[in-house]
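Long-time lurker. I teach an intro course on protein structure, and each term I like to show students one example going from raw sequence to a predicted 3D structure in C-alpha cell notation. This year I'd like something fresh instead of my usual example. Would anyone be willing to generate the C-alpha cells for the chain below so I can use it in lecture? Attribution to the forum is fine with me.
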Amino acid sequence: AEPPDGEHNDTFPTISIIVGFLFKLFGESLVVARLANIFFSLGSVIVFYLLIKALFGREDFALLCAFLASVNPMYVFFSHNVDVINPGLFFMLLGAYYYILWLKEQVSKFKFSYLYLAAFFVMLGTITKYTFIVIAIPMALTFPYRKFIQNKQKFIVPLVIAIVISSGFPGWFYYSEVYVKNNIFGKDIAKTILDS
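-- Reply from a regular --
Happy to contribute to a lecture. Here you go:
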C-alpha cells in the first residue's frame, strides 16, 4: 500500500521534468504536453532511420524501416500520449545509434566520444523506462572484446568512464526500488499501523 500523500517509487520523471519546463515557458496546456511527446516520437523515427542506415548502409532500407515504424498502430497511439515510452524510446535509439557509430569508428582509430554519448543516452532511456535496458543485450553481443583484450591500455580508462556514466541507471533503480520502498513506504506504513 502506497502512502495517501502521493509519495511513490517510479522510473525517473524525465517526461514530467521536460513537460514542466515547457509549461514554464509556454504556459500549462495539454497541447504543449502532447507536442513534447510528438517531438520525441518524430525524433525517434529520425533516429531509427539513422540507426538503420548506419547498420546496413542502405538509404532505401532505412527509409522503409522508418516509414513502417511511423505507421505502426501502437507507435501512433503512444506518440501523442504524455507517457514515459516516448522519451525512453528516443534516448534508447539515440544510444544505440551512437554505439554503432563508435563500433564503426573502432575499426580505424581509438576514439571514445561516441561511446560516452551511447552510455549517456542508454542510461537516460533506461531510467526513463526500465524495460529499455533490453538494448544492452545486442550491445554486449557486439562489443569488440578481442580488440579490448589486445589493447587494454587504450580501452580501460574510456570503459571505466562509460561505466560511470551508465551507473545512473543502477543508482536510480536502487534509489527508487529499494531506498524509497524501505525508507519512505516502510516508515509510513509502520506509522499508519501504529497510529490505528
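Some talking points for your students: The two ends are 15 Å apart (CA to CA). The longest helix spans residues 168-195.
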